[in-house]
Amino acid sequence: MSHKLHGKKKRIWLLAWQGSVASLDQRLFYADIGNLGQLSVIALPLAHRPLFPGFYMPINVKDPKLLSALSESRKRQAPYAGAFLIKDETGTDPSLASTSETEVIHELKGKELYDRLHEVGTLAQITRIEGEQVILIGHRRLRITEMVSENPLVVKVDHLKDKPYKKDDDVIKATTSEVISTLKDVLKTSTLWRDHVNTYTQHIGDFNCPRLADFGAAICGANKNECQQVLEELDVKNRLRLTLELLKKEMEISKLQASIAKNMEEKISAEQKKYYLNEQLKAIKKELGLETDDKTALSAKFRERLEANKEKCPPHVMQVIEEEFTKLQLLEASSSEFNVTRNYLDWLTALPWGNYSDENFDVHHANTILDEDHYGLSDVKERILEFIAVGKLRGSSQGKIICLSGPPGVGKTSIGRSIARALNRKFYRFSVGGLADVAEIKGHRRTYIGAMPGKMVQCLKNVGTANPLVLIDEIDKLGKGHGGDPASALLELLDPEQNANFLDHYLDVPIDLSKVLFVCTANVIETIPNPLLDRMEVISIAGYITDEKMHIARDYLEKTTREACGIKPEQVEVTDAALLALIENYCRESGVRNLQKQIEKIYRKIALKLVRQGLVPDEPSPIVASVVTTPENSYEKSENGSTGIVVDENLKVDDEAEDSSNKEPSKMPEPEVQISRIPGADNEDLVSQGKVESEKVQEILASKDIAKVIIDESNLSDFVGKPVFHAERIYDITPVGVVMGLAWTAMGGSTLYIETTLEEQGDGKGALHLTGQLGEVMKESAQIAHTVARALFLVKEPDNPFFTNTKLHLHVPAGATPKDGPSAGCTMITSMLSLAMKKHVKKDLAMTGEVTLTGKILPIGGVKEKTIAAKRSGVKTVLFPSANKRDYDELAENVKEGLNVHFVDDYSQIFDIAFSEDEITEK
C-alpha cells in the first residue's frame, strides 16, 4: 500500500505510523485528510506556548470528562484533537505565566473557554495517554469556525493551507539562508536544540521553507503571543521574516549570556590568582624571616596585650588562656574553629584582670560635685554621701546596689554619672528597657555563629578597669520573651553574694564583679520583680517643686542652653516672671526635661531673631573688634527709651570685658580696632590714623546700652506658644457636693475634684452612678464611700431618708483621663455628705486617704507630690492620714510652708474639720 501513496500523503502516513497509530483504518484516514472539509474536534487549551506542526507536546488534563472523551476518541478511528492557545487576560504580562494562572485555565469550561481560545491552532494527534498526561504531536494548522458542544468543548474547524509561494523568489531564498545561518549559530550554544533538529528530521523529513519557519519559531524562547503570530501567518515569506526576528533576538540573548559567564569566570580566576600570589608572598616572606605567619603574629599580639595585667590575672584564667594559645597553634587558619579560638582569646586578653582605678572617698569633694551638677535633692545627696563615707571607712564601696526611682526627667541618670565622677570611677551605662533575651546579660555559647559575651563583659572591655560604676537604666521595664527571663539573670549579676564569681556563657570562666558599683534607675518600683528589688537599696526622687525648678532653670539649664546656642549673656534677658510662667503653665511635670526643651525652644528663636537682625557678624575675628554702624532694624529700644549700639560680642577687646571675675587677666598685645560711625558718638575723637586704644573703646561700649532681647511674661507665648496647663483650681468656693482631692500621677502630684449631684429621687431609689473613667479600685472605693456616708448620715440625721430615696451621680472631671487608686475614699464620702446636708466644705481644703467600711483612714503614697499639688492650687488646709505624718515631717521646710496640715485616723475627724460651723452654709 505504501507504493501507491506518493508525496505529501506518503509523508503523513509515515508520520502517523511512527506515532504508533494503531489501525489500518486510521492510517487511511490520515492519508485522505487533505480531502476533508470541516471537522469537529475536541478543543484542548494550551497555557504557555502554541503547538507547531511536527513537534511533540505533553499537556495535563485535569477534567475527568475531557480525559474520558480523549480516550474514547483515541479508541475510535479519530485519535486527534485541536490544540489552541489561551488568550491573555486584559492587563497581564504574556511573558509571565504563573502556576495560579495555569490552574485558572484548567477551570475554564464551555462558552467561557471558547471565548478565550485563539482562532488558529494545530491539529494534534493523541499519541499516548498516561494518567492525566496526554502526549500530542502537531500536524497542520486549523481555524475554529463554530462551537458544537460545551462539555467537553467540541468545535468545528477548517484546515488552513499555506499561501502559494515561489521557491526561486530572491527574498525567500535570502531569508531562508539567513534563518539557516542564524539557526546554526544558535544551535552551537545548546545541545538540547540539536536534539530537536534530529527528532524533527527523523519524524518529518527534510526542511522546506514553511517547515523551517515553524521549526525556528518553535525552538526559540520568545513569548507565546509572538509564537502564536508565527502560527497564524499563512504567507511563507512573512512567516520566515517573523521567525528570523525571533532567532536574531535569541542570538543576542545567547551572546549576552556568554558574555556574563565569561566576565564571571574572569573575575573568579583573578580572585584565585590573587589569592595564590598572596599565599606565595607570605611563604617567601616567612622563609626570608621578614614576616611571621598569622598564628604567630596573633599569639604575639595577645601575649603583649596580656603582659600588663599578667601578675594580677587569676590563675584559673591564665590556665585557660595558655590552653587556648596551644590550641590556636595546632589549628589551621582556614578552619572555622580557628576563628572561634581567635575571638575567644581576643576577649580573654582584652579584659582588665585585676586592674582597678584609684577611688576618691573625699566626702567634701563628692558634695561639691553633687552640688555642681544638681540643685536640691538634699535627701538623695545625703544618702549618697553616707554611702561614700561608709566606703571610706571600709576602704571599698562594694556590697550595695542603689536603685534611683522617680518620674522621668528628675535626673536619675545624671546622678549616677555624678557619683562616678565623685568616686573617680569609670562610668558605663546600658539600658535594659524591653530586654527580652538572657544572652544580652549572660552571653551566648561559643558554639553559636556570631556569639558574643554579655553586656557586663563588654562593659569591662570598654572601660578598661574592673571597678567601674555601671548604670543599669530602666530596670522596671525588663521584658520577658522566648529567650528566657532577664530579671532572673540579673540576680546573679547584682547579688553581692554571687557576683564575685559571675559566669558568662561565652567566656566560661568566673569573673569578679564584686568591686563594680551598680546603680539602677526606674520610674516605678512596683514593676520590678521582688527577688531583684530585694537586693537593691531604693532611693526615691519625688521631683522638684516650683522654687527648685526656678533655680535649676536659672543656674543650670539657661546657662547650658545659652552656650550651646552661641548667645552672649548681654544679648538676652529672661525675667523671673517669664521663668515662673513657663514652669507653671508649660512644664508642670515633676522632672525638668520638658523645661529644658522649652528653654532651648526660646533660645533657638532668639538666635534666629539675632541673626535676622544682623546682630551677629558673618566672619568674627578673635583679635580685631569691629564696631559697625547700626541700621534702624538692628537694635531695639530699651525700657528707658535709649538705643544701643551693636557690638561683636565674640571679639575680644580686653580680658576684663570678657570675664570681669578674673583677678589677673592675661596680658596680650593691644588689639588693632577699626571703628565705623557710631550713632550719638563723636567719631573724630575716636579715630586716630585708624587706631584707638582699647580702653577708649571700652568706655564707649560701657556708655551705651547694648541691644538685648527681653523675655517676660507678656511675650512668652510668642516663643513657646499657648500655655499647655491651666489652673487646676476650678472653683474659688466649692459648691455643695464638690470636694477637692489630691492625686499622684507619673507627672507628679495634681488636684482633682470629686463632684456628686442628685440624679433622681423616689421611694427606695437609693443608688450610685459613677462616671469619669474610673478604674476598678476607684469604683470599689466609691461603693465603700457610699456605704460609709449612709451609715454616718444615719447617725447625724436619723430621720432624713436622703440616701435611701436618692440616686446619686458621682463624677471625677477630666473624663478622658483614666483614674485609679484607693486614696480618694475620704474625698468621696465628704462629697456625698456635703450634698446630703446641703453644706459647703471648708474653704481652701483638700484631702486624701483610703477609707475602710468602718471609717478608718489608711495611709497613702506620694505625700510630697500631693503636698506640692496642694500648694500649687492655693490650698491652705490639707488632711493626711495619721500614718503619713512621718513622710510629711521629712519634707523640706519650703515645701511645707504656708500649709495647715491635719493628720486623721478616723473619718469623724475629717467630718468635724470639713464641715466646721464657722464656714458659710449653703448660699
Structure in words:
The protein has 923 residues and is of the alpha/beta class. It is extended. Residues 1-37, 618-706 and 919-923 have low confidence and may be disordered. It starts with 6 loop residues before the first helix and ends in a 9-residue tail after the last helix. β4 (120-130) and β5 form a beta hairpin. Strands 20-21-19-18-22-25-26 form a seven-stranded mixed β-sheet. The protein has a five-stranded mixed β-barrel with strand order 1-3-4-5-6. Strands 8-9-12-7-13 form a five-stranded parallel β-sheet, sandwiched between helices. It has 34 helices and 26 strands.
Distance between the termini: 131 Å
Number of helices: 34
Largest sheet report: 7 strands, mixed
Tally of DSSP β-strands: 26
Based on Cα principal axes, name the global outline: extended
How much helicity do the residues have?
40-55%
Notable traits:
Lon_bac/euk-typ, extended, seven-stranded mixed beta sheet, disordered N terminus, five-stranded mixed barrel, 34 helices, single chain, alpha/beta, disordered C terminus, 923 residues, Lon_proteolytic
